[in-house]
Design brief:
With about 300 residues, this protein is an alpha+beta fold. About 20% of the residues lie in helices and about 25% in strands. It contains five helices and 13 strands. It has helices at about 1-15, 20-25, 180-190, 250-260, 280-295, and strands at about 35, 45-50, 55-60, 65-70, 85-90, 100-105, 120-125, 150-155, 170-180, 200, 220, 225-230, 240-245. The chain has a six-stranded antiparallel beta barrel. Helix 1 packs across helix 5 (about 280-295). Bound molecules: 2-acetamido-2-deoxy-beta-D-glucopyranose (2 copies). One 2-acetamido-2-deoxy-beta-D-glucopyranose binds near residues 180 and 181.
Length: about 300
């Protein structure tokens, strides 16, 4: 009886904890606004993380078998690694290049879907990409944060305006880094926290930004990747820069390093990203796990 009661309380707790906040549905899954056409040869590290063969998120190649993307692109329990493919070596959305099946997804264990903190995922493909002029790994810069106003370069096939259409041709733009204190102040009214795992890039006047479908793509400074497209409040709005996962944070670079040495298949929510509903069967499975754990504790 006591066990049943504990299980019931845990179920309530799980349901309460797993409700997503609004921006996760509006912005997560985040084309570049205000950009220009570019080619894959200019950005040979850019890949597309496809779900059921269609563009889902951006990403970057970091070794011949590993790509970097955002955890919010891959976290759903309902999605298996095998439902994703990585397409590399093409300038076009859902066309050309080479697609290889995903075998393993290593999300940051501390990824939080409500705050988008620790938004990093290392995604492995089943066989190695053959490197070419259009397929090359991105050099990563972990060592240090970059100064304010440094120009960052972003690329992607995401929507060209808030709630707009995806771009068929790869887009690129330059955006300057925004001072962290200033950024935190701008997002205060939105009740969003800019954590140490996040960095802000954008224009005060808006007009140029990452948008839906760019998520997981690379933020590059002087040819080195320093960030991952993570979230924003709408796209390209004035006074609301885009937020990127910061590779210079040791917990972010540490996760990438660990994952490259071998990872367990980690996912950590109960939300179906497509329909945004609770996944009861999985909740029940978790409950059984919790009951086993509380048995040990009692
Ligand atoms: C942000 O700008 C303020 C001055 O406005 C400065 O004191 C602070 O060091 C800057 N923060 C960072 C992280 O560079
Ligand atoms: C991860 O590896 C890179 C390159 O070897 C290194 O610069 C960085 O400090 C490492 N991060 C951690 C947390 O070990």
């Amino acid at each position: 009886m006591l066990q049943f009661f504990i299980a019931f309380i845990l179920l309530l707790f799980i349901i309460a904890k797993s409700r997503p906040v609004q921006y996760t549905t509006s912005k997560l899954g985040t084309r570049i606004v205000g950009g220009q056409d570019t080619t894959i040869e200019e950005h040979p590290y850019q890949v597309s993380l496809d779900l059921h063969g269609e563009h889902w998120c951006g990403g970057s190649l970091i070794t011949t078998t590993a790509t970097l993307t955002a955890a919010h692109c891959t976290y759903s329990w309902e999605l298996y690694a095998g439902e994703f493919t990585i397409r590399a070596g093409t300038s076009f959305n859902d066309e050309g290049g080479i697609s290889i099946k995903v075998v393993n997804i290593c999300n940051h264990p501390k990824f939080n879907v409500d705050t988008a903190d620790y938004d990093v995922s290392v995604v492995f493909v089943i066989e190695a990409f053959v490197l070419s002029e259009a397929i090359q790994p991105a050099p990563l810069q972990f060592e240090q944060d970059v100064p304010d106003d440094t120009i960052g370069h972003i690329t992607g096939w995401g929507t060209v305006e808030e709630d707009g259409d995806m771009s068929h041709i790869l887009q690129h733009i330059d955006v300057p880094k925004v001072n962290k204190t200033v950024c935190q102040r701008l997002f205060k009214a939105e009740r969003k926290i800019i954590t140490d795992r996040m960095t802000c890039f954008g224009y005060t006047d808006g007009g140029k930004d990452a948008c839906q479908g760019d998520s997981g793509g690379p933020l590059v400074v002087n040819g080195n990747q320093i960030g991952i497209v993570s979230w924003g409040e709408g796209c390209a709005r004035p006074e609301l820069p885009g937020i990127y996962t910061k590779l210079a944070n040791p917990e972010i670079s540490g996760h990438i390093n660990h994952s490259l040495l071998g990872c367990v298949h980690i996912r950590n929510t109960f939300i179906d990203i497509k329909k945004n509903k609770l996944l009861l069967p999985f909740t029940v499975m978790y409950l059984i796990e919790f009951i086993t754990v509380s048995d040990l504790m009692l």
